[in-house]
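Hi R.,

Here's the input for the zinc ion complex you asked about:
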Amino acid sequence: MQRRAWLLLAAAALGLGACTTGLPIDTSLRASGQDSRVRFIVLHYTSENRSDSLRLLTQDRVSAHYLITEEPVRIFSLVDESRRAWHAGLSQWFEYPNLNAMSIGIEIVNAGPLDVARTRWAPYTSSQIRVLAALLRDIQSRHHVSAWNIVAHSDIAPLRKSDPGPAFPWRELALQGLGRWYDEAAVAQRIPLISARALADASYIQGLLARIGYPIVQSGVWDSQTRRVVRAFQMHYRPAEYSGRLDRQTVAIAEDLARQMPALQQ
Ligand SMILES: [Zn+2]
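And here is the predicted structure with zinc ion in place:
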């Protein structure tokens, strides 16, 4: 009898499992102190068609766990959830940097901006969003991902990225519990109460945005990074106008989300 076969037989007799290295490892007990490595779900558009998206995501140095195609909608699983996909790049959400290690990345086939000025964006189809919602619900239930940790690539890398863009229906998904949203009635009441001082003070919005997860330097001045983070925030929560210019509605939404944070945080 070969030595390896003998070892496997001996391991079986002892109640030991054998992993692919051939080492006899006992897997009959499980530790109660463990959880999923997945804390975030990051959404992207591919800005390519189906075949180019599949080629890039399988043959290049970028990847994602899932790709949702255009019509007829199909979900491809390209990287096992237990492994790291290379989709987030340099990124941060709350205090967590480099989200590849702790996230699941979902790419959606969508052309992104339709003109150079980035004023028109390709729509997502209702079947894409229906399929995405089912996938998000499935991932969320298995990994217990919080609503405020379902994020845009542009949320976690606002200086580099715009995806999934202002055409993405964040509100529709959030109202199904798939993402974070603000109290719309409370924000409508709050808008006229936002002071001119709050609008003028860069450190105020910088503090609010950091509190609700955005990576932003607390410079205290109106610099280009602040404008770009405000733009990313607007694309997510107020997609009708995302110039990056601060206004009362933007501040009111950020204040409402910040107000939710103590209750939401674990
Ligand atoms: Zn992306």
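One thing worth noting: The longest strand covers residues 40-45.

Cheers,
M.
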